Amino acid sequence: MWPTPGETLRELGLKSRDTIAEIGSGNGYFALPAARVAAPASVYALDIDDSLLAELSQIAALQGIENLITINGDARQLSAQLPEPVDVVLMANTFHGIDETAAFVQQAFESLHPGGRFVVINWEDSPREATTIRETPRGPPTELRLSPETTEQTVLDTAGFVLEATVDLPPYHYALVFKREYTD
């Protein structure tokens, strides 16, 4: 879907020296390129599946990536699991599946430096049958898909974010980039 995930991350504003926390990192489709983009800064890859994190650690070691740190844990306690506030919280393809969305969004907010960015990549709210790869439907069930407007409102209603950008990611995704407002 993203032949060049590193370029997608750059398009979304990630850059060298950004500390990043990727939520639901799995075995590293975005975490590995994020580590290359952000180097030498730390990239924290959080997932609840320890076996995927073990695979991610092995791949990172084979590729000589030293700034990737895996964390086995629940995104709803993100700020307590990170050793430091980060510049970017990244969530790709999993926002629709989070229980207690408001609690998670608040954790993303609390995990960021003031001025930090919360990047949400989501599947379009098209029917699943319309989002195919090699003629096979992909992505979450249709009823779980969120429009950009619904995702935006969920985030803005929960924490002190402002929408910085909406990015079309063909063929089947969009991204919203939120900025944590500065607080006194």
Outline type: globular
Characterize the largest beta sheet: strand count, sense, and whether it forms a barrel: 7 strands, mixed
Helical content band = 25-40%
Strand content: 25-35%
Number of helices: 6
Terminal Cα separation, in Å?
Answer: 41 Å
Calculate Rg over CA atoms.
Answer: 16 Å
Low-pLDDT segments, ≥5 res: none
Structural class: alpha/beta
Count of DSSP E strands? 9
How much is the average pLDDT? 95
Oligomer: single chain
Physical arrangement of strands within the biggest beta sheet = 3-2-1-4-5-9-8
Order of helices and strands: HEHEHEHEHEEEHEE
Describe the protein's architecture and organization.
By secondary structure, the protein is α/β, with parallel strands linked by helices. The protein contains six helices and nine strands; from the N terminus they run αβαβαβαβαβββαββ. The chain has helices at 5-11, 31-38, 50-62, 78-81, 101-110, 148-158; strands at 20-23, 43-47, 68-72, 86-92, 112-123, 132-133, 136-137, 161-169, 173-180. The strands form two sheets. Strands 3-2-1-4-5-9-8 form a seven-stranded mixed β-sheet, sandwiched between helices. Strands 6-7 form a two-stranded antiparallel sheet. α1 crosses α2. The longest helix has 13 residues, at 50-62.
